[in-house]
Amino acid sequence: MTAAAEQRPTLAGFFRPYVGNLVALMALTVVLSVLAMLPPLLVREVIDGVVTEGRHDLLTALTVAMIAVHVATAACQYVQTRGIAYLGQRFVFDIRVTLFNHLLGLSLRFFGKNSAGKLVNRLMGDSGTVQQVITGQTITLVSDLACASFAICATFLLNWRMALLLLLAVAGFVINYRLTIRRITRATRGYSTAMDRLSGGIQNRLLASVAVKSFGTEGREQETFQAASLSSLALSTEAAVASTRFSMNSHLLQQVGRSVLYFAGCAFVLRDEMTYGDVVAFTSYAFQLLGPAVRFTEVVRMVQDVRIAVERLFELFRQRPEITPRPGAVRPPRFAGDVSFQAVVFEYEPGTPVIRNFSLDVRRGQRVALIGPTGCGKSTLLNLLMRFYDVGDGAIRIDGHDVRALELDALRRQFGIVLQEPLLFDVSVAENIRYGRADATRAEIEAAAKAAEIHDFISRLPQGYDTVLGSEGVDMSVGQRQRITIARAIAADPAILIMDEATSALDSESEAAIQRAMERMLKGRTSFIVAHRLSTIRGADIIVLLEHGQIREMGRHDELMALPNGGYRELYEKFMGKGVIGGEA
Q1: 262-283: per-residue pLDDT in tens?
Q2: Which string of b and e fits 402-412 if b means at least 16 CB within 10 Å?
Q3: Cβ–Cβ contacts within 10 Å for residue 377, how many?
Q4: In whole angstroms, what is the distance from residue 389 CA to residue 108 CA?
Q5: What residues contact residue 583 under an 8 Å CB cut-off, 6+ apart?
Q6: Whole-angstrom Cα distance, residue 185 to residue 202?
Q7: Angle between helices 19-45 and 58-104 in degrees, nearest 10
Q8: 42 and 62 in contact (C-beta within 8 Å)?
Q9: Are 394 and 347 in contact (CB under 8 A)?
Q10: Is the four-CA dihedral 437, 441, 445, 447 of positive or negative sign?
Q11: Contact predicate 495/541, CB 8 Å
Q12: SS3 label, residue 407
């Protein structure tokens, strides 16, 4: 892996491309701050100069100046709003794209430990929360700081004793913040974690809707969802209550501070230590200091949400792929298909081997059927072959190349996979078939569909091959969906084919069609088939009966049937009337 690939993203790194834009927005904010300072001074001149001293000639100029300030403020605010909207959207776009690409590069073990619902919640929800870093509220903080600094200086020039009262009110905001922020943070972090669990649970249960309906457990699932929702609701309520209390205390401090300053100013007027214009200007500047303090209370919750969202996003960024290209990795030509497992040992958890000293030599073009009880290691062997995991000991070689010494994309693109559960995307039928080979022509797509015996069905769809699956009321059986995935594998023209229980959930008619399609696809290709259909198993060149990650028996159908008291023979005779090895393959 290159140094650039190893470099982890940082929040500063996402900000860096937009530093110039942010500086421009902040400069515009400073301009708005200066404009906000002018109205109190203009009002003071109207009161003390025009009204009190009778300088009526100033009224027109002051009126024009006030209107000009308001027009300039509106124009600057429009430009600022457009800029903030653009930066916020681009910022979250960059985070989402970078994180999505990072997740695609992580290994299967990571996805086995993290539900899709949890990852989607972080990818979409937390990145959206981080977008709040670039909003009018946060940019306004710069303006607030500028206004506050100017206001403090102006109030001390007007009356230092009242300025000290103003600073005392500001100290009250600081104390309120320190007393409340920890509770808000704790509740917000707990709520985010609860939403991860809730999202993962929803995803799992919706995907398992057939099982839910089959066992009639809708009521139980409703209770489970309600309990999880109530848990997240309690945490959300705790954070909202703490935030509301914080905000209410801040508003109370603001109102009390305003009252005290106003009446104190009146007292100074009565003692001839301030003019009425001075009091109006002072209270205006005081409000420009107390106002940001109140807005700060509204930003506090957002800041905590963003901080926690950033922690959760960069927790994902810190995850490193378990399987990475090795230095000097080779990009091989198209595989001929000679595969060799050499004393392979593998364990998911240390001390618990799943594959034990597995050795098998497969010549190009041979068909290998892997059978055995659930958990015996059939799918694990195929995952090791495609290097979704690395062997713990031993080696797997294709055409003499150790798979660990090959470039990952060059290795995996030479495999075609048909899984038990047909996976189709919400794009057109043509795009689904073309998925494994982006440059496939329409003629090649249709040829693949004909080979998979699904062309006639596709032709009857509303838009034919351009029909978008998941829309337009398209309803397909499992067999039809599976044939589209087989067409996808045929169009990819793989050197080695893997079929993992591809016909396990089909009716006899669909199975017959898929078997014919499989025969066309398997011809001349090395293939590995996790199978439980006896018709599929019988035609294999090598049948491997696995038990506890080891080969118990291996050979052709007639060879294994000739073994007295053989395990394969026992399974075959037990299930040959059913046509499948029920529950044990």
Answers
A1: 788 788 777 877 777 777 777 7
A2: bbbebebebbe
A3: 23
A4: 8
A5: 374
A6: 26
A7: 160
A8: yes
A9: no
A10: negative
A11: no
A12: coil
